[in-house]
Design goal:
12 helices, 2 domains
Amino acid sequence: MDSCHFISADPVGYDWFVRRTFKFLMRPTARQAAELTAMLNDHRDLYNSALQERRDAYQMGGVSIRYGDQSAQLTDIRADDADQARWSFSSQQATLRRLDRSFAGFFRRARAGGKPGYPRFKGPGWFDTVEWPKDGDGCRWDSQPDKPSTRVRLRGVGHVKVRQHRPVTGRVKTVSVKREGDRWYVLLSCDDVPARPLPPTGRAVGVDLGVVSLATLSDGRQVGNPRFLARAAGQLAAAQRDLARKKPRSRRRRKAAARLAAGHRKVRRQRLDLAHKTALDLVRGHDFIAVEALNIAAMTRRARAVPDPDDPGRYLPNGQSAKAGLNRSILDAGWGVFLSVLCAKAESAGRTVVEVDARHTSQRCAAGEQVAPGNRVTQAEFRCTACGHAAHADVNAAVNILRAGLARQADAQAA
């Protein structure tokens, strides 16, 4: 979440520009949907073939193949394969760059000593996006605000209707098509999008994220956590059992898989909707927002196994069952989604978002600054063992977060 650090701008008085992505639902005909599916499959074949070439070259001769080597072969591939020749050359280059980024990430993680994660071959359900690096090169966004319908032109597919529910501002940089279940979306990445600064409010707030409440503010307000995944767990479990009973590669199994995926997509949309509404309320009401710098990946990591010194080959209890439940609750709350949305909205509105160290924020007394593990009596109750200050534990933490954020902002301005 480094992008959150000191997002700020002067109050209303001048304009600035940001980069934003607009996502719209496409309305393809049956023929166009079949062509879009064929386009995804052909780009997936190109991705897998390029991955196989890299693996074979290294295993057989110790040779590393780069993006430039594979991009140079596209002309010959398109001449020999009529299916590949139907699609845009630039979109195929973008697919090869996608593979190149996967290898770059693999080597970066390997050098850092982490889990490398060698690039994998993409099955039919694991390759759902095709990108065009430049509007007008194999694709064309045809936005006509004065007409009822908008279209996007894609080479090999044609002009596809788009449900444009809001105006596109800025300059369209890249165009992507994404499949989500039985729906198709077009994503427009735009540069030079004008920001929408809001008038100053003179208010600042600290935000403490949690699993009981999604967010607790330093002024005492709380945003509930609906636990969308937990609420849908029964239906998702039933859909998962139904999927497990179906014959592999059968039509019924595909339908069961689609129902399960639709359930998970609904949970994701609900979580994103709550994040947008909560972030918008914070940005509209405050000039300065302090949040915790959370390492969510580390917080949700599986508990480390504890070998039994008295019985080699066996392990001691490590609380993994309880840790798994906590991990599930953290991920269900969607902290990462909320923080990303908050930072984007604050950038456009000219607000300041500052991340602070989360350590000891729940153990520090907001009145006397004393830090002690015993200060937090229960999940909701805070009582200082030194001065007796009592408050809601999450509100106390949010006050500490706000104080630390203001101090950090003051240090940055003085530097």
